[in-house]
Design a protein that fits this description.
It holds the Pfam family Pribosyltran. Helix 1 crosses helix 2. By secondary structure, this protein is α/β, with parallel strands linked by helices. The chain contains four helices and nine strands, in the order E-H-E-H-E-E-E-H-E-E-E-E-H. It is about 25% helix and about 30% strand. It has a single domain, classed as 3-Layer(aba) Sandwich (Rossmann fold), CATH 3.40.50. Helix 2 links the parallel strand 2 and strand 3. A six-stranded mixed sheet has the order 4-3-2-5-6-7, sandwiched between helices. A three-stranded antiparallel sheet has the order 1-9-8.
Length: about 180
């Protein structure tokens, strides 16, 4: 049923799993014996973070932060609302922010500054998808699985009005669905 709203599958489930496995191996080497905190940005990061940490062979903790900047639309408003803050103290800890997508960069720019004020030992950004054409601020991920074109995508955690998160792939949403 959901597939009928998808114009094109951009990244298959198998490609996502393979990218998460490869990145997990890299993060295993980088964070061995550092006990990092992987912070998922809710809600979109959940499927990617779950897949990624399955491939990290090192002690790690998880925490979550819920923020909103889309207010139901297809583009960030630039206004960030913290719905749920971290429960862990990140001072002097190695922190890895897990994002589903970096588009405008507005949300991540505010989050990065917010995290740095809390004085972590290190701060890295990991994203499943990078959409550089959508960038409105200068920010990059330390690790990115896929660079995508400037299309409105859903699936594997990404949504349109809270729908489509459960698709097992990343797909381009048909324009008639959101216009």
């Amino acid at each position: 049923m959901l597939d009928q709203d998808i114009k094109k599958v951009l990244i298959s489930h198998e490609e996502i799993v393979a990218a998460a496995e490869k990145l997990g191996q890299t993060l295993t080497q980088e964070y061995q014996d550092k006990n990092p905190i992987f912070v998922g940005i809710l809600k979109g990061s959940i499927p990617f973070m779950a897949e990624l940490i399955n491939h990290v062979d090192a002690h790690l903790e998880t925490d979550y932060m819920a923020v909103s900047s889309y207010q139901g639309g297809t583009a960030s408003t630039g206004e960030l609302t913290v719905v749920k803050d971290l429960t862990a103290d990140i001072e002097n800890r190695h922190v890895v922010i897990i994002e589903d997508i970096i588009d405008s960069g507005l949300t991540l720019d505010v989050l990065k500054r917010m995290f740095l004020e809390r004085k972590p030992a290190s701060l890295k950004i990991v994203t499943l998808l990078d959409k550089p054409e959508g960038r409105q601020v200068e920010i990059d991920a330390d690790y990115s699985c896929f660079t995508i074109p400037n299309e409105f995508v859903v699936g594997f955690g990404l949504d349109y009005q809270e729908n489509y998160r459960n698709l097992p792939y990343i797909g381009i949403l048909k324009e008639e669905v959101y216009q």
